[in-house]
Amino acid sequence: MHSSKARYAQLIKAKAQELGFDFCGIANADFLEEEAPLLETWLKNGMHGQMNYMANHFDKRLDPRLLVDGAKSVVTMLLNYYPAQRLPEGEADYKLSKYAYGEDYHFVIKDKLNSLMNYIQAEIGEVGGRAFVDSAPVMDKAWARRAGLGWVGKHSNLINRSIGSFFFIAELILDLDLEPDGPITDYCGTCTRCIDACPTEAIVGPYVVDGSKCISYFTIELKEAIPGEVRGQFDNWVFGCDICQDVCPWNRFARPHKTPAFDPHPDLATFTRTDWEEITEDVFREVFRRSAVKRTKLAGLQRNVAFSQPALPEPNKPDDGQTG
After folding, report:
1. HEC-encoded secondary structure of 98-139
2. 244 a known binding residue?
3. Which residue from 190, 222, 217 is spatially nearest to 202, judged by alpha carbons?
4. Where does the chain bind [4Fe-4S] cluster 2 (predicted)?
5. pLDDT, position 233
6. Which of 272-276, 303-307, 317-321 has the lowest mean pLDDT?
7. Residues near 64 by Cβ (< 8 Å), separated by ≥ 6?
8. Helix, strand, or coil here: 255?
9. 177/172 Cα distance (integer angstroms)
10. DSSP characters for 183-247?
C-alpha cells in the first residue's frame, strides 16, 4: 500500500500553501543524471566566472542523498515576488532587479521552511531532513522541473505556466517516501526573445547562459572592477537584471505577490538619479537594511552606479609619438 505516500504528499502541499507558497511539487531524491554532463561542461568552459563556489561540491549538487542521509524525496516550493508596482524603469532611471525590492528572501523563506519542517515532524512523526534556500549546493531549477512546477526556459530560469518566472525556489530534502509528481513539457517553442534581448549576449545558445557575461554576475557576484568592454551595455541596471524575464511572453501571467516583506522600502519608490549617484552609508543602511542589495556593500553599489552611467566621450588624445 502506498496510500500513506500520497496522503503525506497532500498534507505537505496543503501546509505549504497555507504558509504562503504559491506552488509545491515533489520529486524522488535520485542522482541528477541528465544535469551532470551539462554542469560539467558549463564549469569546464568557465561560464561560472569567479563564482568559484559553483565548482565546489560537484557530487553533492547532483545527488541529494549526499546532503541528507537516507534522502527519499525533494519537496520544492515556489514563492512569487512579482511586485504590485514596479520601480521607475525609464531611460534615465537606475534599475534594481525585482527580487531585491524588499526584504532578503533568505530570511522570509527560511522561516516558512522551518514552519513546514516542524509541521511535518508534528503530523507525520520522526522525519529527518534539511531546508534549502539558495544556501547550499542544490540545483533548484532541476528539482523544480522534476517536481512538475515548470520547465527551464532558454534563459535558464524556471517558467511556470500560471505565473511566469518571477519567483524564488526553495526545497526540503526529506528521508520520507512521498508520492512524486511528474515533469511537464517545455513550452518555449521557437521563441528566442530572451536570447535576442540580452544586451551582453550572455545567453550563448538556447538553455545555456554564460554566467560570466551576465549583468547580474557583474553587478552582484564580481568583486573587482567591471571590465571596460561591457561599458554602455548595462541599460542602467545597478543590482541584478530582469531583461530576459521582462521580455518573456510567459510573464504576461505574472501577478502581484502576497508577501508584504517583499514590498520595497518606501524611500526606494522615490529614489532619483541623484539619490543613487550620491548615496551615503546612512541611506544605504536604512533603505537596504534587510535587502539582498547588502551583498554588494555600499562600495559595490557605488561602483555599479558609476559604471552604468552613460559613458563620457573620450578626451582628445595626442597623436602617437607626441606623448612626452
Report:
1. HHHCCCCHHHHHHHHHHHHHHHHHHHCCCCCEEEECCCCCCC
2. yes
3. 217
4. 198, 214, 241, 244
5. 94
6. 317-321
7. 29, 71, 74, 138, 143, 173
8. coil
9. 13
10. P-----TT--HHHHH-TT--EEETTEE-GGG-HHIIIII--SPPPGGGTT-STTEEE---HHHHT
Asked if residue 24 belongs to a known ligand binding site, the reply is: no
Neighbours of 283 (CB within 10 A): 14
Spell out the residues 6+ positions from residue 288 whose beta carbon is closer than 8 angstroms to its own: 265, 294
Q: Give the count of alpha carbons within 13 A of 232, CB side only.
A: 5
Alpha carbons 83 and 104: distance in angstroms, whole number: 14
Between 315 and 308, residue with greater pLDDT = 308
169 is in an annotated binding site: yes
Whole-angstrom Cα distance, residue 297 to residue 234?
Answer: 19
Residue limits of CATH 3.40.109 in the chain: 3-84+98-174
The SS3 of residue 25 is: strand
Q: What is the pLDDT of residues 275-308, one digit of tens each?
A: 999 999 999 999 999 999 999 999 999 999 999 8
Residue 143: alpha-carbon gap to chain centroid: 14
Q: Is 134 annotated as a binding residue?
A: yes
Fold of 3-84+98-174: NADH Oxidase (3.40.109)
Is 146 among the annotated ligand-binding positions? no
Cell of 321: 609619438
Q: What is the set of active-site residues?
A: 134
Reported pTM: 0.91
Q: How far apart are CA 155 and CA 135, in angstroms?
A: 22
Cα separation, 89 vs 95, whole angstroms: 6
What distances in angstroms separate CA 257 from CA 102, 112, 168, 251, 315, one per listed residue?
A: 12, 15, 11, 13, 48
Please state, in angstroms and as integers, the Cα–Cα distance from residue 32 to each residue in 55, 164, 171, 209, 284, following that order.
Answer: 16, 24, 15, 19, 41
- 135 vs 249, more confident: 249
